[in-house]
Amino acid sequence: MTDDLEAYLTLDQQLCFALYGATLAVTRTYKPLLESLGLTYPQYLTMMALWEEDGQGVKSLGEKLGLDSGTLSPLLKRLEQSGFITRRRDASDERQVTISLTEKGADLKVRAVDVMASIGDAMGCSLEEMASLREALHGLRDRLNAAQDHSS
Asked: What is the distance between the alpha carbons of residues 61 and 148, in angstroms, rounded to a whole number?
């Protein structure tokens, strides 16, 4: 193998490793901010989805978050125990469960507004730079998903 090729096979040259490291750093940055809200990072994402659209079914919530029911169910149980959500079975179809915010869960949204500003400060990014980065990452995700769909 040539030296040029070997240089590309170092960790620092790998996009996946850069994304992994950035993800870990972002999650660590969120942790103390979310602890003050009484949430873990996955719980925060779930609450964000519910703040966007309250009263979602577990299946659609899982699809939106990219979580399977084995991961989502215990997360929802903990949010319910914390008083942020309720889970209600559909009377006409017991298999369907609807997730709704409680008053406490809806009120948490006001306190969560500061999280995004704190993350922006920690990143040293303006709102415009954060939006640009987010769009680039969404584009990358979409292209990778499309490539997976075509190879299936």
From this structure: 22
Q: What is the CATH number of domain 11-151?
A: 1.10.10.10
Bridge partners of residue 101, in order along the sequence: 85
How is the chain split into domains, by residue range?
11-151
The structure's pTM equals 0.84
Residue 46, Cβ neighbours under 10 Å: how many? 26
Dump pLDDT digits (tens) for 33-85: 999 999 999 999 999 999 999 999 999 999 999 999 899 999 999 999 999 99
Gap between the Cα atoms of 103 and 85, Å rounded: 9
Please, which residues bridge with residue 99 across strands? 56, 87
